[in-house]
Write a structure and sequence with these properties.
Blueprint: H1 2-12, H2 16-23, H3 33-41, H4 55-70, E1 91-92, H5 100-108, E2 116-121, H6 126-135, E3 140-143, E4 155-157, H7 159-167, H8 173-179, E5 180-183, E6 186-192, H9 203-206, E7 209-215, E8 220-222, H10 224-237, E9 241-243, E10 250-254, E11 258-262, E12 270-277, H11 284-289, E13 297-307, E14 317-322, E15 327-328, E16 334-335, E17 338-343, E18 358-367, H12 376-390, H13 397-400, E19 402-413, E20 426-428, H14 444-463, H15 469-473, H16 480-491, H17 504-519, H18 521-528, H19 534-547, H20 552-559, H21 561-594, H22 599-615
Parallel strand pairs: 1-10, 2-3, 2-12, 3-9, 6-14, 12-20
Antiparallel strand pairs: 4-8, 5-8, 6-7, 10-11, 11-12, 13-18, 13-19, 14-17, 15-16, 17-18
Helix pairs in contact: 1-2, 6-10, 6-14, 7-14, 8-10, 14-22, 16-21, 17-18, 17-19, 18-19, 21-22
Length: 626
């Protein structure tokens, strides 16, 4: 007993003498490089969206990842009695459950005006939806758990995506000029079995890989702190309301009366006709709806923003890049590591190219959420180890770099996306709905692409009180091109225990990107901006088969026949949606707008035509060939 007590006192610091005595007998755990660097930079890192600033935050993310891996999927039907108590009821449409004060306020406002037309939960991306909806004349409130602000690290985006916000009036040209702090010509895509830069020729010419540069893709660095400040100011000028540092406790829904936000015992609830969930992939609303599900895929990403790289060569970005074969992590399975890198503080505000040594680098990988998958710390340690190979101007990240921010996250993705609503008067938007590509770990580009469509549809639904879950489901309709991208994630990942040639992913992507590059910017640029179109897809697949016909059996064996058949179904629907948009919509639209009198039918046909357009990628404006 004394021995156990002495160990306890030593570990808790209760007795210095015991601590000194036992230290030679109990080896202390070596502090990892990741822990050292996070603790060293935690004072420099700022809060805001997209990360945390402490090692404790890293451990919380690690615990969440471990919990997700250990979870087991099961079928849950809330209409069937079982031993399972079911999910925590964050949203309820049963008057006997939920915050009774919310219910009382809703009943008290019967036949009266609710507090707001729309309540948006989650402000980082929600403020963009809020501003667009306020411009359409709606009374909107944004509820944010923290302070509504952006982080200091840049978001990377393309100019045509920023111009979507200009066209909608969310930003002015002056705003755009003020928030863009970095500009460079374009980004490299490269897939190599080993690091060789520059690399010429194709995969079968050099037996290494292929690389190409595409201009005007993710070549702008936007300061989120400035961007959100400008949009927030615009929203408030339009009469919008923001409640910061207000944590949402739940939502009650009456199909007949409206919705109410539970903001805690001492805070008056907020009522609204419609609640928009913009709380990201960790939303408690979508978590309740997906109870029993395990994600179909995960994109895990680690990285940093740091100074100390060679300024003279810090001129271009990398949008997707490999310099190693598939890594065999033993019991953790096999992983293909991908990289991204973006220069910071060049090309704008008098900062000439070649003058900044700062860049943001990411390492990411696609996998499932199998319990055996590696920890975030394992991925982070691999990142530090491989970073000097990827960026040869440094040799030791700990001593060569001045690290400003360390990034780590995992993004669960689901094949049944975008998420259709389970309740009336509640709609998931942005990352909470899964509208972004499963290949992407950032939702800002998807936001700019869908902002006009979604806010227009929401405005139409509010105008005619079409807020039943079946009506709102038309906004988050099936999009075959989004579903088709699941095959790409499947092809770029390896299941635990699956046997695969270590060069498989590099061979597949090097061949495909060489084909798309040769087909021109109208093929490769949409793909790099997460838009899949049938013309580019079928053309590149056919040419890839001709370029490497013997590889097809390996691809089929890797992805599996059932997944391939499922994918072919989505491709067939892409063809159908393309034809419907091109041939039927021009005939149907004037009939819907002119002759159709029933507002619900008119609303639903509008949504169907939008689904054909966006589900086929026909909304994307193709660039001119050079």
């Amino acid at each position: 007993m004394k021995f156990i007590l002495s160990i306890f006192l030593a570990l808790t610091g209760g007795a210095a003498a015991f601590s000194l005595q036992m230290s030679s007998k109990i080896p202390s755990k070596e502090v990892s490089l990741t822990q050292r660097l996070i603790e060293r930079t935690s004072g420099q890192q700022t809060g805001g969206a997209g990360g945390t600033s402490s090692y404790e935050g890293f451990l919380r993310a690690e615990a969440n990842w471990k919990r997700l891996k250990q979870s087991q999927p099961f079928d849950y039907d809330p209409k069937v009695l079982s031993r399972d108590d079911g999910p925590q009821l964050f949203v309820t449409d049963d008057g006997a459950t939920g915050n009774q004060v919310c219910w009382e306020k809703l009943r008290g406002q019967k036949d009266k005006q609710l507090d707001y037309d729309i309540a948006i939960c989650g402000g980082t991306l929600g403020i963009f939806f809020a501003t667009s909806l306020a411009l359409r004349g709606h009374k909107v409130i944004v509820v944010e758990a923290g302070i509504l602000r952006g982080r200091e690290q840049e978001w990377n985006i393309s100019l045509d995506e920023m111009e979507e916000l200009l066209c909608l009036g969310v930003l002015s040209q002056e705003d755009i000029d003020a928030v863009i702090t970095t500009e460079f010509p374009g980004c490299r895509s490269g897939f190599k079995n080993k690091e060789v830069t520059p690399l010429t020729g194709g995969y079968f010419d050099n037996d290494i890989g292929y690389e190409t540069i595409t201009n005007d893709v993710l070549n702008l660095g936007v300061a989120p702190s400035l961007l959100l400040e400008r949009v927030k100011k615009r929203f408030l000028e339009l009469g919008g309301t923001i409640k910061e540092e207000t944590r949402l406790q739940g939502v009650v829904v009456s199909e007949a009366l409206g919705s109410a936000l539970d903001l805690g015992e001492d805070v008056e609830p907020i009522t609204a006709s419609l609640v928009l969930d913009c709380m990201g992939n960790a939303s408690p609303i979508s978590r309740q709806q997906r109870y029993g599900q395990k994600p179909d895929g995960v994109c895990a990403v680690v990285g940093s923003c740091a100074s100390g790289y060679d300024a003279a060569t810090n001129l271009m970005g990398d949008i997707i890049y490999t310099h190693t074969e598939i890594y065999d992590k033993g019991p953790n399975g096999k992983l293909q590591y991908f990289w991204e890198a973006f220069p910071v503080n060049i090309g704008r505000n008098g900062n000439e190219p070649g003058t900044s040594s700062m860049k943001t680098t990411y390492m990411f990988t696609y996998m499932d959420a199998d319990e055996m998958r590696p920890s975030l710390e394992t991925l982070m340690e691999d990142y530090w180890r491989l970073l000097p190979v990827y960026q040869p101007s440094i040799s030791d990240p700990e001593n060569d770099l001045d690290i400003h921010r360390i990034l780590f996250a995992f993004f669960p993705t689901y094949r049944d996306s975008p998420l259709k609503p389970q309740w009336s008067r509640v709609l998931a938007i942005g990352d909470a709905s899964g509208i972004q590509s499963p290949l992407s770990f950032g939702g800002f580009g998807a936001l700019t692409r869908h902002l006009e469509r979604i806010t227009g549809a929401i405005s139409n639904a509010l105008e005619h009180s079409l807020l039943h879950k079946d009506d709102l489901a038309e906004i988050n309709a099936y999009t075959p091109n989004l579903s088709a991208t699941w095959m790409f994630q499947k092809a770029m990942s390896v299941q635990v225990g699956q046997s695969v040639d270590s060069k498989f992913v590099n061979r597949l992507l090097a061949t495909n990107f060489e084909v798309m590059d040769n087909m021109g910017v109208r093929t490769i640029k949409p793909f790099l901006q997460d838009v899949v179109r049938i013309d580019g897809l079928l053309g590149s697949l056919a040419r890839s088969f001709v370029a490497d016909p013997t590889f097809m059996p390996s691809i089929v064996a890797h992805v599996g026949v059932p997944r391939l058949v499922d994918w072919l179904g989505h491709i067939s629907m892409m063809i159908l949606y393309t034809l419907l948009h091109s041939l039927v919509s021009p005939i149907l639209e004037p009939i819907v707008e002119g002759a159709l009198k029933d507002e619900r039918e008119k609303y639903r046909w509008r949504r169907r035509m939008e689904a054909w357009k966006f589900g086929s990628g026909s909304d994307y404006i193709l660039p001119e060939e050079n």
